[in-house]
């Protein structure tokens, strides 16, 4: 590949270097990544999140995200995931 030298100008993770040397697409899913994929939000979860947001939005002095996490039916969602989804919606 004549243009491979351009890729060497930028920082690479070990997984990216492995793919460069062994061929792109050579990593199996889940290999070389330190974090697992976040499961997508289902329409039911989005609706529940929306309802919880409107319910706890007007509570004075409380943290909305903490209240939502306490009442979210799907366990395993992090604070960051909930905030990101609320912003996206």
Automatic annotation (TrEMBL):
Q: Name one GO cellular component term.
A: replication fork protection complex
Gene3D superfamilies named among the record's database cross-references: Homeodomain-like (1.10.10.60)
What biological processes does GO assign it? Answer: DNA repair; DNA replication checkpoint signaling; replication fork arrest
Q: Which GO terms describe its molecular function?
A: DNA binding
Pfam families xref list: HTH_TIMELESS
Q: Where is the BEACH domain?
A: 1-89
UniProt xrefs under InterPro entries: BEACH_dom, SANT/Myb, Timeless
* Recorded superkingdom: Eukaryota
Matches recorded under PANTHER family: PROTEIN TIMELESS HOMOLOG, TIMEOUT/TIMELESS-2
State what protein this is by name. TIM protein
């Amino acid at each position: 590949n004549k243009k491979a030298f351009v890729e060497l100008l930028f920082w690479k993770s070990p997984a990216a270097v492995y793919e460069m040397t062994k061929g792109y697409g050579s990593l199996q899913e889940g290999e070389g990544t330190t974090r697992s994929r976040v499961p997508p939000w289902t329409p039911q979860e989005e609706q529940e999140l929306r309802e919880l947001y409107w319910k706890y939005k007007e509570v004075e002095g409380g943290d909305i995200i903490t209240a939502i996490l306490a009442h979210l039916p799907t366990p395993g969602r992090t604070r960051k995931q909930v905030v990101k989804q609320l912003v996206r919606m």
